[in-house]
Amino acid sequence: MRRRDFIAGITGLSAAWPLAARAQQTVGMRRIGMLMGYAETDAQPQVAALRQELQKLGWEEGRNIRIDVRFPAADAGRIRAILMELVSLTPDVLVSSTNLVTAVVQAEVRTIPIVFLSVGDPVGSGFVSNEARPNGNLTGFANWEMSMSGKWLELLKEVAPEVERVGLMVHPETAASIGFFKFAEGLAPALKVKLVALGVHDADEIERTLTAFAAEGNGGLIVTPHAVTFTNRDLIVALAARLRLPALYPLAFYAKAGGLVSYGIDVPSQFQQGAGYVDRILRGTKPADLPVQYPTKFQLVVNLKTAKTLGLAIPEAFLLRADEVIE
Q: Is the entire prediction scored with pTM above 0.90?
């Protein structure tokens, strides 16, 4: 079958999904499809958090719900292929994580309710037109407002005050990445740093771009959230260490893998919240009636071993603010 014919078939399937789902599934059995923009090992805690919360809400796998989870990570072609497979299973709700995965899901699925998680700038990304009342089949939980890049810049300067140039690693075609850069750019002069956009799409580009940036000296690094930076976490952390770049990361798993400092959301807790939206949709609420939500709590993690390797003395006041200090 030609790909465009298959996609056309999916569109028709999406339109008829409620009837098909009731006809093909066991009475009372509902189905959830999950597409994760993280590597499988990183995504397991998030999937477990959603499953556990759904169970608390009365959804027991094998009795009244089935959850199909896939881990396409940052491969756009693979995301589409896996999405087609999941849609053919006639899910009642789709759960997507990261901007890359959510963009593919939105482009291909028009009527199945979608709950997105861990995305940036949902309005600028075109996922919803209004955060208070989404007008389509998508709603969910965003990870950071654009002002977070300013906080990242301040934290980096606090632990590495000698840094004069800061590379902001971004995915150039992602609206959230552009927003992060613009906000940080406005704050950079006050912090006496020159901000440089490091646009990346894959592992090779990450290595080339970061190596060239570090060669000019006096540099620091901020890694913004995207499926590309998530799935290349180990490479980025290793390069920052080899190139002796003080680096600030958006999620705790970077610091736990050897990154200097991370500041961001507790991702599993957001998936617990997402389970609440899945529950409400399964019980009849429309996505348009569920406002997009932002996190209110963030985690600061410091890796002292990495700081010592870089010759940095982390201020005591900074350590006291940290939620976790890795010795």
A: no
State pLDDT tens for residues 236-295: 999 999 999 999 999 999 999 999 999 999 889 999 999 999 999 999 999 999 999 999
Domains defined for the chain, CATH in brackets: 3-143+267-289 (3.40.50.2300), 148-264+298-326 (3.40.50.2300)
CA-CA-CA-CA dihedral for 153, 155, 158, 159, to nearest 10: -110
What DSSP assignment string belongs to 17-66? HHHHHHHHSPTT-EEEEEE-SS-HHHHHHHHHHHHHHHHHTT--BTTTEE
Interatomic CA distance for residues 278 and 282, integer angstroms = 6
SS3 state of residue 123? coil
Are 237 and 257 a contacting pair, CB within 8 Å? yes
Cβ neighbours for 115, distance < 8 A, ≥ 6 positions apart? 93, 94, 95, 96, 138, 139, 140, 141, 274, 277, 278, 281, 287
Q: Is 248 within 8 Å of 221 (Cβ atoms)? A: yes
